Amino acid sequence: MRTEYKVNLGQSDLPGYWNTDDILLQNVETNQCTELLVDLSLGRVPIDKVPEVMKHWATRLRKGAKLIINDLDLSQLSKAVISKKTSVLEINRLLYNGRLSCLTLEDVSTILSSLGLRIIRKSLVEFEYSVEAIRE
Fold first, then answer.
1. CA angle at residue 68 from 66 to 27, to 5 degrees?
2. Which of 12, 54, 56, 67 has a CA 20 to 30 Å removed from the CA of 117?
């Protein structure tokens, strides 16, 4: 049995990662992840469960391990609709294709910080954000 993992909880398989769609990481024990990549999967978590699930993910990280979350930013999507930079059809495709929640870059950063993780990188490109945090 492996004792450490680089885990990809995302939309596509990545080489060098253990790829899974198990949002709760039931097969990963505490302190086993050297890196956890959550790529466009946070939206599968109901909004009222997001902090609890993110806390669960943090417990899976080893000290010095990274948690990287890439997802859609609700504020940026809203601005794009209002300014007519994208169509309502495109926004609906992005938001209602199996999603249960949509947060913002700042929401996610705040939750990660409240869990004792240190934010080491944040970026926002068009509708998508990326937050990288480390467990110290």
1. 75
2. 12
Q: Which residue has the tokens 């870059």?
A: 105
From the list 135, 131, 123, 4, the residue with the least C-alpha distance to 57 is 135
User: Whole-angstrom Cα distance, residue 117 to residue 106?
Assistant: 14
pLDDT tens string 72-111:
999 999 999 899 888 888 888 888 888 899 999 999 999 9
What is the band of 2 on the pLDDT scale with cuts at 50, 70, 90?
low
The order of strands in the sheet holding 117-125 is: 18-20, 5-10, 33-39, 61-72, 128-135, 117-125
